[in-house]
Amino acid sequence: MEILGFDLSAIDVAAWWRATVAYAGPRLLPSLGIAVIALVAYFPVRWIIWRLELRFARRTATKLDDRIAQLARRALQISAVAWAGWRLFELWGLPSVAAAVDAIWIAALAFPVSALVGDRIELWSSPAETGSWGDVIEIGLRATKIRNPDNLVIVVPNNEIMRRDIINYTMSGSRIRLRIPISVEYEANLAQAKDVILAIARDTAGVVRDPPPVVIVRSFGASDVQLQLRVWIEDARGRRAIADEITARVLERFAAEGMALPYPKRDIYMHQVDAGGAVAAGRGRHAARTGEPVGEPGD
Prior knowledge:
Layout: E1 2-3, E2 6-7, H1 13-55, H2 64-91, H3 95-113, E3 120-122, E4 133-139, E5 143-147, E6 153-157, H4 158-163, E7 176-184, H5 190-202, E8 214-220, E9 225-233, H6 239-256, E10 265-273, E11 279-287
Antiparallel strand pairs: 1-2, 3-4, 4-5, 5-6, 7-9, 8-9, 10-11
Helix pairs in contact: 1-2, 2-3, 5-6
């Protein structure tokens, strides 16, 4: 008997069927179990993501958190299908196909990460004494390359990126707000200090006028009043340069207008016993800035 060019009479159909049943039989039930596990894991997690989106994402004005929720749903769908396929191909003795599914799975999960191409992000691990941020320059199947401001390329595994919160300075637009700490001594005129800081901020290139810069009293230190300048800038990539320029100009302007910068001060009490056993107390002020010692009473 010949069908489509094959001579079936030469094939032991019964033996072939027995071999097929012997191979497939033990694998049918585990295959069904894998499919059930994938479905059971998929729907509850999808419901949790949906509830979180309703509670948080849709109540905010920004679209960034909505985008994150969409990416989470997509990653869940891809992972459920890919895991089931990977386990099934492993179970049915097709390791090369399973490896291909694994690679496609990683690549698909990396697509959300690819939204960072060219973005400036904060690094959670970088060499000591180097920049803590960098620009994404390349995204591969397994790792992402980030160049920091010292021109060092840091290779971060994609699974590490997927597990961490990412501070992205440019994803929501190039405009960001800077908070620059500036301290003045307690004897300083706060209104004058604020006027000086605001004037310099408004005159600095890259600082936007609307919303305008503001200066607030942040806290009180041991020997200083700690202010904070808050400014919006046009380009997040210039935040370090702008902060440096404003700080340097404030320092120069304070010096020109006779406003001393704060430095630690200590009151030191010294006791001296005279020949009659009486204790003479002396008080001196030690200026930590100059390091000048306070002499004994009577010097």
